[in-house]
Amino acid sequence: MSFTAPPLPIFAGENYHIWVVKMKTYLQAEDLWSVVKNDIEPPLLRANPTIA
After folding, report:
1. Confidence label for 49 from pLDDT (cuts 50, 70 and 90)
2. Which domain holds residue 36?
3. What gap in Å lies between CA 52 and CA 48, rounded to an integer?
4. 1 vs 10: which has the higher pLDDT
5. pLDDT at 23 exceeding the cut of 60
6. Which of 9, 29, 33, 35 has the fewest CB neighbours in a 10 Å radius?
7. 26 in any annotated domain
8. For 6, which DSSP code?
9. How many domains does the chain have?
10. What's the rounded Cα separation, in Å, for the pair 3 and 25?
11. Is 25 helix (H, G, I), strand (E, B) or coil?
12. CB distance 35 to 42 below 8 Å
């Protein structure tokens, strides 16, 4: 069985309130929300980001 992640939410100019929730959830799932919230640099990629 293979797993494909859902596509990155892209804002198309409509339904901003829905896009915000989707984007925040996506960033939280990727452990990147703190980067946005605290305005810090994201962590560097590991040696082999494909496997990581």
Report:
1. low
2. 15-40
3. 6
4. 10
5. yes
6. 29
7. yes
8. P
9. 1
10. 18
11. helix
12. yes
